[in-house]
């Protein structure tokens, strides 16, 4: 007895937007998001809230992209937080002084010597914890 595969059903299974393969890829992306949110440092919560994922069509099949920093406010500090930053000087851009809170009081300064920081690699580690093969785009 010979059987012939239903090509349309097989194509839907492997390549359809609602097929189990795409749903699995999307679930892996959401899992990576969750891990990344647990790893990332939280000061205001904006960076944590900007973490997301999306399924994108590739050749062949689909990939999942895990990203952070969808707004101008968060995009400027995604990379220093993810990859780390060298020591540097912070100066005001539009005012004469920087204004910030330290030790429960308001501080004004013309410049601040930032000591630098190690990167948390929250996106990379989150994807790896979800079992994804991660690479930078």
Percent strand: 15-25%
* Radius of gyration over C-alpha positions, nearest whole angstrom: 22 Å
What is the count of β-strands?
8
Biggest sheet details: 2 strands, antiparallel
What structural class results from the helix and strand content? alpha+beta
Helical region count?
5
> Which stretches of 5+ consecutive residues score pLDDT under 50?
none
- Helix content class: 25-40%
What is the overall silhouette? elongated
Strand order of the largest sheet: 1-2
- The averaged pLDDT comes out at 89
What is the straight-line distance between the termini? 49 Å
Order of helices and strands: HHHEEHEEEEEEH
Summary tags:
137 residues; alpha+beta; two-stranded antiparallel sheet; 5 helices; 8 strands; elongated
How is this structure best described in words?
There is one protein chain. With 137 residues, this protein is α+β, with helices and mostly antiparallel strands. It is 39% helix and 23% strand. The chain has helices at 7-15, 20-39, 46-49, 72-83, 122-129; strands spanning 52-57, 62-67, 84-85, 88-90, 98-102, 105-109, 112-114, 117-118. A hairpin with a 4-residue loop joins strand 1 (52-57) and strand 2 (62-67). Helix 2 (20-39) packs across helix 5 (122-129). 16% of the residues are buried.
